[in-house]
């Protein structure tokens, strides 16, 4: 799905951070308008690549529907993932990636950054708060794979 265009998982929504000769990390983000336009294609690709795990995807999908109930608002720029390789963590690189996302969002006419973070990921939550994000909603908790977890929706208005 990463190599296909016009879906939420596409490489076109990824920005990589280089540190010296190495890739330090990446951010995967897209506007609410892009997500809306890509919704059918993203769903189709998820089902296609799930193949024999289709029933598991359906069960997980219903659970996620309950936990990810907050849809994107017009003008949102959704950060689906921020990822840094271990040696590059705690060096300010997440801030660089979030600043890049802000620039991309502004160029696309978006008015705020939006992301979801696991409520137990205190390191990421603190990093997002230092970058100016605030918690706007908390999902209800679900039991999945023997653990109880939920998400926090965090937002940051853009200037």
Structure description:
Helices cover 36% and strands 31% of the residues. A six-stranded mixed β-sheet has the order 1-2-3-4-8-5. Strands 6-7 form a two-stranded antiparallel ribbon. The longest helix has 19 residues. The termini are far apart.
What is the fold's blueprint, element by element?
Layout lengths: L13 E6 L2 E10 H19 L3 H14 L8 E9 L8 H15 L4 E7 L3 H9 L3 E5 L3 E3 L2 E3 L1 E7 L2
Helix/strand-derived class?
alpha+beta
Strand content: 25-35%
Number of helices: 4
Shape: globular
Distance between the termini: 33 Å
In round numbers, the mean pLDDT is 77
In percent, how helical is the residue content? 25-40%
Task: Please tally the β strands and state the result.
Answer: 8
Please tell me how large the radius of gyration is: 16 Å
Low-pLDDT stretches are none
Question: H/E series, N to C?
Answer: EEHHEHEHEEEE
Strand order of the largest sheet: 1-2-3-4-8-5
Biggest sheet overview: 6 strands, mixed
Summarize the entry for a quick read.
With 159 residues, this protein is an alpha+beta fold. Helix content is 36%, strand content 31%.
Name the descriptors.
159 residues, 31% strand, alpha+beta, single chain, globular
């Amino acid at each position: 799905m990463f190599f296909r265009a016009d879906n939420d998982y596409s490489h076109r929504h990824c920005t990589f951070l280089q540190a010296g000769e190495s890739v330090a990390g990446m951010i995967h983000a897209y506007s609410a308008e892009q997500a809306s336009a890509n919704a059918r294609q993203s769903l189709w690709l998820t089902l296609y690549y799930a193949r024999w795990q289709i029933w598991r995807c359906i069960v997980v999908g219903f659970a996620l529907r309950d936990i990810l109930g907050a849809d994107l608002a017009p003008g949102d720029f959704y950060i689906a993932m921020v990822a840094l390789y271990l040696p590059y963590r705690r060096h300010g690189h997440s801030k660089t990636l979030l600043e890049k996302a802000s620039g991309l969002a502004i160029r696309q006419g978006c008015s705020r950054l939006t992301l979801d973070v696991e409520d137990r990921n205190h390191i990421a939550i603190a990093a997002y708060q230092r970058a100016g994000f605030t918690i706007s909603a908390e999902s209800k908790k679900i039991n999945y794979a023997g653990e109880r977890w939920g998400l926090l929706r965090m937002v940051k208005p853009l200037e």
